[in-house]
Amino acid sequence: MKRSYLFTSESVSEGHPDKVCDQISDMVVDTYLKENPMSRVACETLATTNKVVLAGETRGAKIDREYIISNVRKCIKEIGYEQEGFHWEKCDIQSYLHEQSSDIAMGVDASSNKDEGAGDQGIMFGYACKETEEFMPAPIYYSHLILSKMADYRKQGKLEILEPDSKSQITFLYENGLPKKISSLVISTQHKEGNSPDEIKDILKPLVYECIPENFLNDFDDKEFYVNPTGNFVIGGPDGDTGLTGRKIIVDTYGGAAPHGGGAFSGKDPTKVDRSAAYAARYLAKNIVAANLADQCIIQLSYAIGISKPLSIYLDTKGTSKVDESKIQKLIPDLFDLSPRGIREHLQLNNPIYQPTAAYGHFGRKNENNLFTWEKIDLIDELKNI
């Protein structure tokens, strides 16, 4: 392990064009699950100047096209887009959702002679560490926190000069594998015409420093705090840059501090193991670290389409395990049924809980109102018995 190094993670706000698309796609998932908890949904969204296009496959519920479109408008309005180039009320919205392939359905559905299979092949990773109380890597956690706070203040009218589209990036200095202090901060935020980067920096500084523990700001050089480095960020959102579902997978997970299987989450119902198995892997890794069996933990799961059980379970504690890793790995299948059905039932994933996951990360969130069930740490007692 390197003793001293710099590591950087970025986040993007709910108003970033790709995140607008993620939220719309997850709103579609929630709409179908409200109608039928066993619905199948795979929804992709594209957003550009005053236009939104939905495409994908659904099964299990009949939802009126105009109802979906009205919900898209509500979603855009909640984010805060009332701009000339992207307006919740004026943008053109097209939906090309259609029935799921019968071949895929046949592979996924349970029958008299087989359990429900995975919705696709692939590999999924989960990760946890002790860098923050939420068992998340510090750079991505605080990058999310800053943007979430900015959005809250904007919607409360406390930061009226800000518009919805923004990005953050934090570089930490690590010593002996642990975050020591912040080396640099970058925030790029869309704003109303007429505000300079220095003005915006002065306004944002108290908010940003409020989000970060004091010990991480020791000796921080204000010259390494960059705000809107291009000088102007008035044109933004889907008007400035086309958005697509699933393009921010590293933002969604661990900010590059852990591997990613490659599959995006948003727009997919929980039979798709790209999503549900990644949640299960995080749940297991977090409980292992919370039980003090290791200081960090990576779990990989692999699946094949139509097959219910995982093809492999891999665990790596990066040399931080307090017990034999093989003992932990052997216990995992006894703790948690990792079939697609088992994951869904254990984590209650057939509920309409997904739109809130689509901005500020799927992990390290508070399990309030049973929205982020994979963040529970309810396996600790069983794990401590190893």
Q: How would you summarize this macromolecular structure in one to three sentences?
A:
With 386 residues, the protein is an alpha+beta fold. The chain contains eleven helices and eleven strands.
Structure description:
With 386 residues, the chain is an alpha+beta fold. The protein contains eleven helices and eleven strands. The protein has helices at 17-35, 65-79, 102-108, 138-155, 197-211, 237-240, 249-252, 273-290, 325-335, 340-347, 380-384; strands spanning 4-12, 40-48, 51-59, 92-99, 122-129, 162-175, 178-191, 225-227, 243-244, 296-303, 312-316. The model has no long low-confidence stretch (mean pLDDT 94).
Topology:
Blueprint: E1 4-12, H1 17-35, E2 40-48, E3 51-59, H2 65-79, E4 92-99, H3 102-108, E5 122-129, H4 138-155, E6 162-175, E7 178-191, H5 197-211, E8 225-227, H6 237-240, E9 243-244, H7 249-252, H8 273-290, E10 296-303, E11 312-316, H9 325-335, H10 340-347, H11 380-384
Parallel strand pairs: 3-4, 7-8
Antiparallel strand pairs: 1-6, 2-3, 2-9, 5-10, 6-7, 10-11
Helix pairs in contact: 1-2, 4-5, 8-10
Q: C-alpha Rg, in Å?
A: 21 Å
Query: Largest sheet, described in full?
Result: 4 strands, mixed
SSE order = EHEEHEHEHEEHEHEHHEEHHH
Gross morphology is flat
Strand order of the largest sheet: 1-6-7-8
Number of strands: 11
Straight-line N-to-C gap: 27 Å
Total count of helical runs of at least 4 residues: 11
State which percent range the strand residues make up: 15-25%
Enumerate the spans where pLDDT stays under 50 for 5 or more consecutive residues.
Answer: none
Structural class: alpha+beta
Mean pLDDT: 94
